[in-house]
Amino acid sequence: MNTAADFERVACEAAHAAGRMIKERFTQETSLSIERKGVHDFVTAVDRDAEGLVIAHLREHCPEHTVMAEEGSPEAPDSDYRWIVDPLDGTTNFIHGVPVFAVSVALEDRQGLLAGAIYDPLREETFHAHRSGGARLNGRPIRCSEPQDTRESLIATGFPFREFSRVDAYLEAFRAFIGSTAGLRRAGSASIDLAYTACGRYDGFWEIGLARWDIAAGVLLVREAGGTVTDITGGDSCLDTGDIVAAGKRVHPTMLKVTRSAFRARGDKK
Fold it and tell me: Which DSSP category does 73 fall into?
């Protein structure tokens, strides 16, 4: 197994293994043991069990690869390949019974993102891609939308839950988008937001302060679906900073103008 398409298949299988369990627990669970990792940041036994299933599948098929996972699974020795895993993106939704969450699994090599999958178990939707291979939803090709401008666009975002010192800059950008788009949406799962951007349900997505596992698979999907992904100033640091603007090539420059202006006006240094 050494092709990008092979790794894409492994990502899908690993996401499905966790997703099936998550779906079963969502429909049957009557009580959850919930721990607080930080402000607005929770973890449950379902997160950890899902991560265990993903890691087990990756270890079986790619034992020599490194793994970075949200809930702290130990990494293997240094490798040219690293899996990036969010076993349950949308934990707060899951806890409250809101049916919007996903499993996100991505692989990067020395050249960048190589393969990935985002699986929504409640809707049985698997968004998947590998580098230079295009993006797909359940095997069917998908593309980012290309509205004429942001006035016709439905834009997704996520409220800052770690970056409180940057809320004023975020709200300035939020205010600008309210007045210049067809609408804003906040689903509570960055992986879903990026998957929906890749398939054209959303015309763009932006957020700040995310983790690498929140966005890795989604970044690959949007790029392979013909879109553009940068940080909020137009740079290439989104995976490291967690600041992201993702959209089709026609809308992205306008979105970027808004975020760049808002954050620079507030003296944002990131």
Answer: P
Amino acid at 115: A
Question: Phi/psi zone of residue 134: left (φ > 0), alpha (ψ -120 to 50 degrees), beta?
Answer: left
28-37, 73-82, 126-135 — which one is most confidently predicted on average?
Answer: 126-135
Q: Give the Cα separation of 238 and 30 in Å (integer).
A: 38
Instruction: List, edge to edge, every strand of the sheet that includes 204-207.
Output: 183-185, 154-157, 204-207, 244-248, 227-230
Buried b (16+ CB within 10 A) or exposed e, 105-132: bbbbbeeebbbbbbbbbeeebbbbbbbe
Given the candidates 3.40.190.80, 3.40.50.300, 3.30.310.80, 1.25.10.10, the CATH classification of the domain at 150-265 is 3.40.190.80
Average pLDDT over residues 131-145: 98
* CATH code, 4-141: 3.30.540.10
Token pair listed for 199: 């398939």
Is residue 114 within 8 Å of residue 131, measured between CB atoms?
yes
Sequence spans of domains, the chain: 4-141, 150-265
Q: Residue 69 forms beta bridges with which residues?
A: 85
Model pTM above 0.85: yes
